[in-house]
Hints:
The structure holds 2 protein chains of 2 kinds. Chain A is mostly helical. Helix content of chain A is 70%, strand content 0%.
Amino acid sequence: MLNLVTLHELVLGIIVVLIFVLILIISVLIFSFFRYRSLQHRQSWATIIRQIITDAIVEGTEPLPQDTSFSLYLKIPSFRRYFLSTLVSAERKFTGKAREEVGRLFKVFNLEEEAWEKMRSKRDYLIAGGIQELTAMRVERALPQISDFLKHPQRQVYQEAQYAIVRFKGFEGLFFLDELQHPLSDWQQLRLLRSIEEVPDTHFERINVWLGSDNESVVVFTLRLIGQFQLLSYYPEVLTLLDHDVVMVRKHAVRTLQNLENKDTINQLLAGFANQCNQVQLEILKALKASKSKQTELFLQEQLWRHPDIGIKISAAEVLMALGGQSYLQGIVSSPETSSQLTQIVNHALQEKKC
Amino acid sequence: MLEFAHILYQIIIWLFILYSIAVFLIYGWIGLYAYGAVLRYKHENTFTDYNLIATNPNAPRFSIIAPAFNEGKTIVENVRSLLSIYYHNLEIIIVNDGSRDDSIDQLIVAYDLERVSFFIQGMIPTKEVRGIYRSKNPAFKKLLVVDKVNGGKADALNVGVNISSGEYIVCIDVDCVLEQDAVLKLAKPFLEQTNKRVIACGGVIRLANNCQIENGKVVQVNLPKSWLGRTQALEYIRAFVLGRMAWSRASGLILISGAFGAFDKEIVLACGGYDSKTVGEDMELVVRMRRYMEEHRLLYEVVNIPDPLCWTEVPETKEVLRKQRNRWMRGTMETLWKHRKLLFNPRYGRLGMVSMPYWFLFEFLGPLVEFTGYFIFLVFLILGIVNWPFFFALFALVVSSGILYSIYAVLIDLVGHQVYTKSKDLSKLIATAILEPFYFHPIVVKAGVRGAVDYFRNKHGWGEMTRQGFQQGMEGKSWGQQVRLQLHDALRNYVPMAMVFLLFYVLAVGVERWWYGYNFVQLASFPIGWNLFIDNLYLGFQFVAGGGLIYLLLSFLSRSFARGFAIVYFSFIVLMQFVLFLYFSESRNLLGADMYYYSAIEMKQILDASGMLSWTNIGLLISLILLIAIPLWGSSKWRTKNLYVGLILLILGVVTCFVPLKLLLGKSPSSEEFVENAERSKLRYFLYSNVSNYLEGHPEIASVLGQESTDLVGRDGDLPFLRGEDTKDILGPYFNQAPTAPNLVIIIVEGLGHAYSSPSGYIGCFTPFIDSLSQQSLYWPNNLSTSGRTFSVLPSLMGSLPFAIHGFLEQEVLPNHFNLFNVLKKNGFHTGFYYGGNSDFDFMKKFMAYSQVDTLVDQWAFASPYRKLPGNGGESWGYEDQAVFTKNLETQKVTSQPYLNVLLTLSTHNPFMINNAAHYELMFDRRVVQADLSLDNKKWARENKKQLVSVLNLDDALRAFFEAYKKRPDFKNTLFLITGDHAMPEVPLQSKIDRYHVPLLIYSPLLKSAHTFKNTVSHFDVTPSLLAYYRNNYQLHTPEQVTWIGRGLSEGPSNRSVGMAMMQSKNQLIDFVYGNYHLSDGHLYKLDAKLGEEPLSDAAIQEVVTHRFDAFKRANRIFYTRKEVIPDSVYAGYFEKAISKH
């Protein structure tokens, strides 16, 4: 290499790269300048759009279609896109009449086409954005096309499609769970659960299929769904999930059982306690705490004294405290035979002042 | 050497350029990749509704952990800010890390705290927890305050981790101002995880300096007022928006800022929490977490989100900034060192193959490389070798690239987050980007370098602490146990230095091999690497073991003294390795103890003329010393975990002393001496030469060691070289009788080897004039010089004198002897010596003074218009050959008195720089193309162009000299003898005898006919034959008893002679020719009719030749011991004068 390039050639090479870098600097500066201008525009647009939305919500009037300056703005594609995204954001913030007004603005200014155009794009984020906008503005006509995106390879797109379907169709929209291969993230589960307003009684088979799904995230989601809507009829199926292979499923099964609690629940949880791992045992103790069942006191005392895991001991002491076992716990503390560790654990539960 | 310096210069330049290209590419990639990451995040979160988890009781629990140390002034407000964070399932843990102010009291009062019993579940070891407080006010139920003994930030965080109940922990600096939705935004990546577990998540930190903060919230964003602050604002944008986003997208992020980051608590606990022994606990934890996940084969992610979530104050004074950067550098180094196993380890995937190498090469080495660049620039500046156009072009490129990156970061920030939206702020940021390389950057580079130095100092100032501990551990131990412990500890301390030495040493050997391949075409094709490597490695282990023993002994006196010794010792060895192989490369001679036989002035002249004593080389030498000594110094602070490596090194050193090296060495790929020498360890030769030289001078030690030299044997009273003069006149029959004794002009040509001065030489004839003259002369093509250097040519050629120990002229006082000068002068000759250089060199002047030479011309006698040879750095050996010849013509007047003039040339001496080089290079090129040279000849010639160009110059000067002489009336009555002092070692020697193989010719208009003699003769034979010629033909009176080593040109080193010894250098009497056999360093060779030689394995002949050689050495020793070559009476009788004895 030493002989391949002379110093003169090297200097020339460096100067060429230097010129390239200088051109890049100038380009970046120019681009930054235009970017700044665009931001400035957006700020002024934001003021105008806010005013339009406010007027529409407060006064419910026709929002100045004859306003010539606004009409001029509406001819700018980037303004229309910004207007649309602002409307979608506003739709989230309002309910009732105000939300309807926002939807009306969407129709009046014919912004639907912008969203359709986005959805027809090949870029993932634009498709996802289009789905979000059409969903927010409740353009039900888009449902068939949105459904097609359930099988889209990009996470962002199929998640938005899932959310959109459920927003439009509620529980019915969860049909995609039947064949769902991808895991549902907690975030997506929370979004979907929030979009479901009711669960009809006629879907026993479907929920059973989901509870038996190989996709553990579908099982967890279904358990959350059962818990959220108190679907008591699924209690036996949920109970069987205490033997599921996946810890997370078992934890959620305990939570769901606690939500569906009946007279047998405590005994059923206690019966399976010994066979569960620490994480599930802690979950069971939380359920016991919530149940406030006095019949568990002996069991809890046993765990406090005998269980090898400190976390379980602490939790058992806290449940005992919640069940009114303060005097029992104080008795433990005051006994000179109690080990210092147990004393500390019990004190922790008692939350006693030291000074 | 100059060539090597030039290449080294180029290598340095290229290393920096390649590093710069790598930096350019990596930051280019970061810029582009971060842009994609920022856009993707922005697009994915355009309509994100964080309310989904803000109030959701089923959302995961987060625990904010904020360590506080002496934050009394602001802690109440800071906690209030934290309490306003928007997230339902949140716990805020303030850890008062043993503050010496009233922090805890203020918190108790402000938040109505009470001490509670709390069982700490976490198992990470920490300093003692004094108490845990909760608020009695339900409004502050999220707050938990811990009071603990001071243990540092990492320890405080560990306490927080132990206490926390959240599934995720958010570690922050308590003085940070968090955005209210900070936890919401951090939580999202954790909730979005599916098949890959998100183990850590960081957000962008922005500068709170000069921002308007009300009720713990940033209400107005402003740029810091100071340039230092603004530059850090820019730096934070670059780091968080570009760097971390790119690495996050590439799954390579290993740093979540300690000021603000969220972690999966389960993994943190599994990894053992923060390391409280490091100052870079934030990075170290992430690396350890990632390492844990890799080792357990778990899928994971470390995520950074580009939202500005946290505001922090940055230092606005240089001093505080320096301390901060110093700490960062040390933290980086600690983490890299602690997890060095990961570096380039494919088992750790991207962590090992990308992230860690990036941090090592760019984040850690970056400031050091830059600082080294400044240093090298300074060295180049002092040496005056800075190429300014190149420098300015590169400098402008580096600076503008930095500016581009900064401005680009501002742009991306503008695209993504719009924190600084005022046009004034943007303009200031761009101005800051332009100023930063000149103002801020040098400060952080300096602080980084200082951090690196402090790392070694502290960590290994820790060495001092360990030593104290060690000494403490000595208490109560027996003497034997103390010694054992001391040795144990010292050996562990020695090993890292030994390993660094071996690394550099092997590297130097690698450079040596590469250099030979690069510099010598004929070596490139020979597989000499193995022998060179093994020979040197053997020696390297011996050095390590030898040095180790000295180190262990010295460590009893003082550990720091022992370390100092090891650093100097190892540095010197590596340095000598470089010096010796470069010397060999330049001179083609192995450097041995002969260097001691040159005076300081001579050494200076040699170095001056070779160009080695240049500022460039001195700079290189210093740089090399620093390059070696600094890592050695760094490693001197380390210890190995156990003794095994140390013991293995010592054992290897001992084993290599006993296992013969020959067992491992491969067969030499060539019998050429140059090739054989090239694959030898130059350092080993140097050492052995010195040892044998010392033993030679100290026979008493040699006898103790059982190495009594055979040449010490001799009989007192003998003058072994004294004999009656019986030399035959071989020359007379070939000359016409002149009316008076003919003049004699002897021309000794520096480095005139047979190989390139004869058509039968293996390189071909590059002396067309000498070649043509030899056809008209008495010519002895098989003539041998008596040494491999110039030092013995005068006594051998002019006096047929023995060598003494280091050369005849090396003797302090020259013993009385006969030589051509004093014998011819006695017979009425005018004598003269002409030399273009300093005649003090090799004691030539002393010889002339002894011989009472009438005219001595050396460099001091020349003046303008005579031209000196061009030199390296202005210094050269002296005047060019043309000047010497012309000076002789000018000085030697035409008289009736016969004369003897000896002319010694020097243009053909290393470094072979001549005036009018272009002309002779053209002549060389033409000769290579046109002359009847074989392909082999041409190949050899091209490889040795520089040397051969100087030979052509000499030949041309000689031609001009003869042409001028022909015009003089005394020409017709003059004998011209031309020979070489030795062959150039710089031209590869095909066989060992080639070093001495030089032409001998006698030309004169008196010559009846030309004749070529086939017998082997030597310089020892010249004086006897010349005097026999003058005695027989012109009745000159010559001594009847002589001490000539040679038997005359008719005999040479024939079986009738005592044989002929040759000194390779001033301390190497290892060559001997007897009859057709050549004994060289114990190996026997058979000489053919053209002085070619082949190895011969014949014990009987070897015994005879060895016996002869021993006899010669014995005689030489006796002469040297007696310091007398002929009896004073014989000498006085001849000169009829009193003898002054010294």
